[in-house]
Design goal:
Layout lengths: L2 H12 L4 H8 L3 H9 L6 H11 L3 H5 L21 H13 L4 H18 L6 E2 L2 E2 L2 H26 L7
Antiparallel strand pairs: 1-2
Helix pairs in contact: 1-6, 2-3, 7-8
């Protein structure tokens, strides 16, 4: 499930609404709505705006886009526990992003270190026959690290049996 679908589902549950109820208000079938929640279907711009109005949040919060603090919420800015919608949705994002264990983080760091040390050899990566410079090497390291973390999260999500999922 991608971050956007995760936020949509979390917002619906936080508002204590059923998927059928939301689908009816959107004017789409419940199955199509659940496919949006699972990330199998894309949400059109007009449906996203309608969905934000149904949930009474801004589009930026619903979709996890950068936003300004002066227009965070439309009307209902607290849930029953007094938490703001933004803080709850940010917590959901953090849970999604922090899904890797310490061992998995260590494994990624070791693999990344091995890859970067291979770049230092004479037969390493070169652009048009010239050795890679330090700035490009650091940019490559950052890109590789984020790609490896994302790949590990996707694999973990895809290959974890349902009985171990919460």
């Amino acid at each position: 499930m991608d971050s956007q679908a995760y936020r949509i589902r979390g917002t619906r549950k936080m508002r204590k609404m059923s998927g059928v109820e939301v689908a009816t208000k959107l004017g789409i079938s419940p199955q199509y709505y659940y496919d949006i929640e699972r990330g199998k279907k894309n949400l059109s711009a007009d449906k996203a705006l309608q969905l934000a109005k149904i949930f009474d949040v801004t589009l930026e919060i619903l979709l996890g886009l950068p936003h300004h603090s002066d227009h965070l919420l439309l009307n209902n800015d607290h849930d029953t526990d007094g938490n703001t919608d933004e803080s709850i949705l940010d917590d959901m994002d953090n849970n999604l992003q922090n899904a890797l264990s310490k061992k998995e983080e260590r494994d990624i760091a070791l693999d990344l270190e091995r890859i970067m040390s291979d770049l230092d050899s004479n037969e390493a990566l070169a652009f048009h026959g010239e050795p890679i410079n330090e700035e490009t090497k650091e940019a490559l390291r950052i890109s590789l690290e984020s790609s490896m973390k994302l790949a590990k999260q996707f694999a973990k999500q895809k290959y974890t049996p349902n009985k171990y999922k919460k």
